[in-house]
Write a structure and sequence with these properties.
The protein is of the alpha+beta class. It folds into 3 domains: 161 residues, tt1808, chain A (Alpha-Beta Complex); 65 residues; 109 residues. Helix content is 42%, strand content 19%. The protein is globular and about 70 Å long.
Length: 367
């Protein structure tokens, strides 16, 4: 089952069982431990997931945090848990104290509904006051699931997570500010916009008028955007219906295969799709990932910019059962093959993937 399906399935289960959980321990067992399992960790292996992990704080000995996830014997993620109905804003100081004395680079505060991920972007070895990623299991967003995937055991890479954490933190805060301005525009925000369309002095009376106009303009823009997306969704549904009808007439696919053409010459595997998702996760911070597509061929799996064969980002050569390669393209369309031992190795080529994608983006702007 795909990671996104696993998380969505867990979200559905969370909504059903949460009201029956009376204690923090019940919350851990029913919600948080399955979440850690969804991330690929063996919650029953003390070499991987340690409950009641000791974090001595100064003269205080025996201080414990609910869970620590280990890698090579060292903690990589500290987890503080609360009852599902508790307000997490009242408990982040406790995680902050543990984070300060630990080698872990990431902290997680959760009540099984909300999962708040922290790191030390502002001051080294001191946990930030605000999380860089927050996921609500009762209100999941696809882009958040893509970020959560980076914490999966298979893909976990400190540098890869940190490279996007800074952007996630500030885009999240800016989104909150914009949401507030959209619902109740401040005088400063109204003046900033009105000066773009009015050359005179903004008097108190004009400010009042423009405040009303700004609110109406925002509402109209949102309605138009929703309408356009609904139209697109209807067209996608029609296309998917046709594809499902066609798929129903085909024979069952082999294990690990997600698509096979009629004559069996082109086979798309789950491993190739997972590799494609890793490339999208890497490029998420510099591009709208909807511009990244793939086309499978007989001997390779191509990942493209804007679905254009003349703008290849990379190719995955996964057809061999023993040797796998990722081929990165340069500005002259020359590919360089690199042997990889696992999907995680794709992260080693983050700079190369971003470089060729940035080149296509810049070329598009200059046209």
């Amino acid at each position: 089952m795909d990671f996104k399906d696993v998380i969505n399935q867990l979200a559905g289960r969370t909504a059903k069982v949460k009201d029956s959980l009376q204690t923090e321990e019940a919350t851990k067992t029913a919600l948080i431990m399955p979440f850690l399992q969804a991330l690929g960790y063996d919650v029953f292996n003390p070499l991987e997931v340690v409950p009641e992990y000791v974090c001595d704080i100064g003269t205080k000995k025996g201080e414990k945090i609910d869970y620590a996830i280990l890698k090579d014997g060292e903690p990589i993620l500290l987890i503080e848990c609360k009852h599902w109905n508790e307000d997490l804003a009242l408990h982040d100081n406790q995680l902050l104290r543990y984070f300060h004395v630990s080698k872990a680079k990431f902290g997680l505060l959760t009540n099984g509904i909300s999962y708040r991920f922290y790191t030390d972007l502002e001051t080294a070895n001191k946990m930030d006051e605000k999380p860089f990623l927050e996921i609500n299991m009762l209100d999941l967003k696809n882009n958040q699931i893509d970020e959560l995937r980076k914490f999966h055991k298979t893909y976990f890479d400190v540098e890869a997570i940190l490279s996007s954490a800074n952007e996630l933190k500030y885009t999240g805060e800016l989104k909150t500010i914009l949401n507030k301005e959209f619902s109740t525009p401040s005088p400063e925000f109204v003046k900033l916009l009105s000066k773009q369309v009015y050359n005179g002095v903004i008097t108190p009376k004009l400010l009042e008028q423009f405040t009303s106009l700004v609110k109406k303009s925002i509402a109209n823009l949102i309605n138009d955007t929703i309408s356009d997306r609904l139209k697109s969704a209807i067209e996608i549904d029609k296309t998917e219906e046709k594809q499902e009808t066609k798929a129903d007439t085909k024979k069952e696919l082999p294990e690990g295969v997600v698509f096979m053409n009629d004559d069996g010459t082109i086979v798309t595997t789950q491993e190739e799709i997972d590799g494609y998702n890793i490339v999208k996760a890497i490029l998420y911070e510099i591009i709208d990932v909807e511009l990244i597509t793939y086309r499978d061929a007989q001997s390779y799996f191509a990942i493209l910019f804007e679905d254009n064969n003349r703008k290849p980002i990379c190719r995955l050569y996964f057809n061999s059962s023993t040797v796998k390669y990722i081929a990165i393209f340069d500005e002259n369309k020359q590919e360089t093959k690199n042997k990889i031992n696992s999907l995680k190795d794709i992260y080693k080529y983050t700079n190369e993937l971003k470089s060729i994608t940035s080149f296509y983006m810049e070329s598009k702007k200059n046209k």
